[in-house]
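Service request form, structural biology core

Requester: graduate student, group of Dr. S.
Request type: structure prediction, single chain
Budget code: on file
Notes: please return the result as structure tokens.

Sequence provided:
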Amino acid sequence: MRDAARAACVSHAFLRSWRCHSNLNFSKETLGLNENACGKDAPGRVFYSKVDHILKKHSGIGLKKLKILIDSDYSAKDSRYLNSWLRIAVAPGIEELTLILVPFGAKYNFPCSLLSDGSGDSIQYLHLARCSFRPTATLGGLRSLTRLHLCLVRITGDELVCFLTHSPALERLELRSCDKIVCLKVPRLLQRLNYLEVSGCAKLKVIENEAPNVSSFAFGGGNSVQLSLGETLQMKSLSMSRCGSIFYARAELPSSMPNLEALTVHSHTEMAYAPMLRSKFFRLKRLSIALTGASSPAYDYLSLASFFDAAPSLETFDLDVWQRYMKNVSVFADPADLRQMRGLQHHKLRSVSITGFSSAKSLVELTRHILESITSLECLTLETPQSSLRCSDRCNKSGKCSPLAEDLLMEGRRAVLAIRRFIEPKVPSTAGAEPADQVNGVSPLKHRCQLEHSATVIFH
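Core staff response, request fulfilled:
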């Protein structure tokens, strides 16, 4: 009886606590729902029942964060549940609201009226996915909103502008696969906006940014999209994924964004090599380049050395060149006359990583150039094609890891052989020396190479 009484006291205390719990996260995982737990009932039906029961019992007092993730069994009639839950949650005091509908074709109209009359004035983060969001001028915006994240949301450019003009505190705007937007205009009154991300918006034609303090911009889309980013001298971080972005980054960005500190470019197709120009990225410290498209022709990887010459402050360089079928000439097909780029020295680059390292001749030339010209190098990581594919990436329906294709295995072996024959001899003779054996105040390269059973080669 004593134990029962204690359990009863604890239960009542817990009941009172969760009815005022400030952070509610609803998904099948957080509720422990699976086919075994649900029995004959569909997990989706049990999910709606449980969430509905919890929220109707919740007092609504002190609720600051609400996240609802629906990943199965959604139909139009279920919108009544969502409307009911949002009416409970959207009240003065709510700070973060996340609604994610995973099922393809889910048709839900977010009730924007719930955000009016001050009910949503405390919301700082709004994340909506796969629904319709149709704000009007009468709704206005959310005066405390600092981050807006819309993914697969049906909203037009005019509706979004209407909402943004009434959200003066916004700092981050993320738009992903919002296919109703044709023209995106970011108003000047968003003085606090510092991060803008736009990707996968299929019908987008124009991005016109007038917000004066955007320092980070991430874009993924077609070459037909016209970019007008306004003031770019304060731009410190840029991520771009589009065809020809490597050439564009080297040829255009040093003059338009000279203060970049981090640059990431991903290109599926490059028709022109990176040019050797006098323009500089004087403040660039981190550079990531990915050229992984199957449609790309054979690329001269050695031309990427022009980025080293253009970025004297560069500290980290990551290169991803993984391709299913190598189109470049192998170094073993033409081992003679390996090119060298004389006179280019770099004294700050410390870490270089190459993913998808192959026996491509120009890639071997680039790697040799890195070892010969970068005096500050501390770590060089070369990851060959088969090590780039994790077992989890090629699991079949039975959960077993499927074997690698023979051509990938063969190229992996050629890549390792290329490292042994053409790369290792370029490692400084001081490799492996202790820190006390420094030369001219620069720590020598430490060298560790395991090639027999590992496809990843690391030089330290």
